[in-house]
DNA sequence: GTCTATATGCGGATAGAC
DNA sequence: GTCTATCCGCATATAGAC
């Protein structure tokens, strides 16, 4: 890791716990292991460090999302078909992946916390937070569930309401267990309970059984 | 409002947007209309202002919660019976009250935002946030729904899973529309869609109809 | 209980040597 | 690309007059 990358990495850690204002350039420099003045050879200001984080992490989030079952707007039929094979278990895999990614991925988790802290002081930051953790997720899942209804994997229902029913608890548990590092089993048990309830309600196979 | 109260009020507004570190004592004093040095006649430090807010608001939140259908652990049977009378419509009233209270109440909304910002830097703050906006709500609703199942208002189901299904979307929408002041109708429409779905799934009367 | 004045330190940022 | 030295403004907080 270059010094320039290490600065971003350490700054993200500090911003995600102490906040932007609560973190000094010296804090970052200390964490990196250089003097604060040296840091200005890599970034021209503290704000440039923050902006770089937002830009890079936004891109990284989109890239990673595709990898775990959030493939953007295309291939919805294929994605739905893929999940169709797995029924209740597939639903659990999907939830667990999304949940553990946002909770534990070394970048996603810190980035989410940072945006959570900073969303109120700047409209642009808020838009980024809202897009990634609210709109994109719900939009994608609404489309996915709509397709899964069409393929008779799920019973007839309102896909938008389903998406909220599915994602909101993931979001809630993410926030609830965010700082409970020793209680991951408990978190996953709660998540599983939720997903099973969701399957009981909407999955056709479960219903027929 | 006394100067001492006004300081708390303005500080809460500032802390809930710019954060504790992002707010200076001068910012608060300016908002109140006094010099920063005068402020120290009322509170001995900036931290004392913050701590006073947390203490007072925690108490106020508990008091207000009781007023809108979150009455603590006693009277659960009575509360459940009360909601039983109203069925689907009562469910909607309950949700709307909780939602609009947390979203719009002039103290609750600012306090929630402040805790959201500050939760990561201090374990104690996090505990307060978690208790009020996660544990208490879920605990109460789990008990309420359990009682409502016993009274045959709801179908047989897992009350804890129901509570997550019910409250998580409220929490999610609260965060989603927190800064969308012009889109309250949209927010309520989404909430209503969720509550109706919840009613369709769990309410006995809806099922039988 | 408000003001002016002030102490003291830390914040972000730059200059220039190596 | 790292360091030392330095600038300057703003931060929290206090002293003391009115």
Automatic annotation (TrEMBL), chains A, B:
Record-annotated DNA-binding residue ranges: 24-43
Domain of life: Bacteria
Swiss-Prot/TrEMBL keywords: DNA-binding
Gene3D superfamilies membership: Tetracycline Repressor, domain 2
Record domain HTH tetR-type: where: 1-61
Segments crossing the lipid bilayer: none
Gene Ontology molecular function, alphabetical: DNA binding
Pfam families documented for this protein: TetR_N
Stored InterPro entries: Homeodomain-like_sf, HTH-type_Tx_Regulator, HTH_TetR
Entry protein name: TetR family transcriptional regulator
Species, as recorded: Murimonas intestini
Taxonomic lineage of the native organism: Bacteria, Bacillati, Bacillota, Clostridia, Lachnospirales
